[in-house]
Design goal:
Layout lengths: L1 H54 L5 H53 L5 H16 L1 E10 L4 E8 L9 E2 L3 H9 L3 E2 L17 E7 L2 E11 L8 H43 L1
Antiparallel strand pairs: 1-2, 1-6, 2-3, 4-5, 5-6
Helix pairs in contact: 1-2, 2-3, 2-5, 3-5
Length: about 270
């Protein structure tokens, strides 16, 4: 298991190195681009006034001063234009860097979800993703019992150890989200917790395998530094809806099959002894 974990960490690290190299290369390009743009601007102005100087003869000191002032003004205006263009490039670079980081986070989260067939470990990974990558402080993972059509908490973070009643399919915000298979996002400021309780979360994400819902993730409170949901948060919710469901379903089936195999093996060993 340690060997497998080390292999996963190495793959994730290798993947992140690709983004780091791309980031370093982009920074170098931006610096060179800035230098070249200033040189081009200077050459453009020098060429323009060099041509003019060939046809326009300055006869007095006053005309010369006026000529230099105009040249200086045009150069200053051109430099300001170049500075604005460089700022635009820098802002675009920041946006690209943020997208790269978001993509890396999505990749790492997806890879982690499918790195184990242990049900408890899968739950732990999902808790870490929701807490560290989305920024939730209080939330729960609920699984649907198809025999009773009830949702019960199988793991939670920040909600204490008190017992909470099961929620029936179709009842309340969580039950309706589970039945419809559609994610629920409360409108308004996510830091405003007015009316938020166990049955009325900020966010409720159904865990689906195709159209089959096996459970939900309900978020009740965000971390202090988390003021709003970003585009990558919604991408993360979409990823969790499918990948987390597959990971939990697969690990649960595997755990059940392991228990059955153990039971069968114990029965066979008992028969051999007789």
């Amino acid at each position: 298991m340690e060997k497998e974990s080390g292999s996963i960490s190495k793959k994730v690290e290798d993947f992140l190195q690709v983004f780091k190299k791309g980031e370093e290369f982009t920074q170098e390009l931006l610096k060179e681009n800035e230098k070249l743009r200033y040189k081009v601007a200077k050459l453009e102005e020098l060429t323009k006034y060099s041509d003019r100087d060939g046809t326009f003869k300055v006869h007095t000191l006053e005309e010369r001063i006026k000529f230099l002032e105009e040249e200086n003004k045009n150069l200053s205006d051109r430099y300001r234009e170049v500075e604005e263009e460089n700022k635009d490039f820098a802002n675009r670079y920041v946006e690209v860097e943020a997208e790269n980081n978001n993509l890396a986070n999505l990749y790492v989260a997806s890879y982690q979800l499918h790195s184990t067939l242990d049900f408890s470990e899968s739950l732990k990974i999902i808790l870490e993703i929701v807490m560290n990558l989305i920024g939730a402080e209080e939330f729960s993972i609920m699984m649907l019992d198809e025999k009773t059509n009830e949702l019960t908490i199988v793991a939670n973070e920040g909600m204490g150890n008190e017992q909470r009643a099961s929620i029936k399919l179709g009842e309340g915000t969580i039950g309706k989200a589970c039945k419809s298979g559609e994610s629920y996002y409360r409108e308004g400021d996510p830091t405003d917790l007015t009316g938020i309780d166990y049955t009325h979360p900020l966010v409720c994400i159904p865990l689906k395998i195709k159209e089959h819902v096996i459970g939900v993730i309900s978020i009740y409170k965000l971390l202090v530094q988390k003021q709003a949901f970003s585009n990558v948060d919604y991408e993360m919710f979409t990823m969790l809806a499918g990948h987390a469901a597959t990971a939990l379903f697969s690990s649960k089936l595997y755990s059940q099959s392991e228990r059955k195999l153990t039971t069968i093996q114990s029965f066979l060993d008992l028969l051999k002894e007789k």
